[in-house]
Amino acid sequence: MVAAQCVHALIKANDALTLRFLRRRSTRHEDAALLFGEILRQRKVPAEYADLREILVRAMSEKSEYDYKGAEVSRDSAERWIRRTERFLRAVQEILD
């Protein structure tokens, strides 16, 4: 459950970025990382945030496991997802401020 909620938080935060800079959001979850990449290519977001794209890539690749298949997540894995999500959310806040 924690991992699924983290993935959804990542998608919503990414939507905030893409709406601001591209005036659109992902219509399919798989597009979230692509749109973040587009923001980077257009230099709307500083290059120092480029590694955040990998968080989205991983989240989108694992989303169905957590959301639809109800995969169990270990405590360590849940804590990693929370840390990744917090990091992404802090970065989005910095970018949007």
Write the layout of secondary structure elements.
Blueprint: H1 2-22, H2 31-41, H3 52-67, H4 75-96
In total, the number of domains comes to 1
Run of helices and strands: HHHH
Which whole number gives the mean pLDDT? 90
Share in helix: over 70%
Strand-pairing-aware structural class = mainly alpha
Care to describe what's here?
The structure is a single chain. With 97 residues, this protein is mainly α. The chain has one domain (2-96). Helix content is 72%, strand content 0%. The longest helix is centred in the last third of the chain and has 22 residues, at 75-96. The model has no long low-confidence stretch (mean pLDDT 90).
Features:
4 helices, mainly alpha, 97 residues
Brief sketch in words of this structure:
This protein has helices spanning 2-22, 31-41, 52-67, 75-96. By secondary structure, it is mainly α.
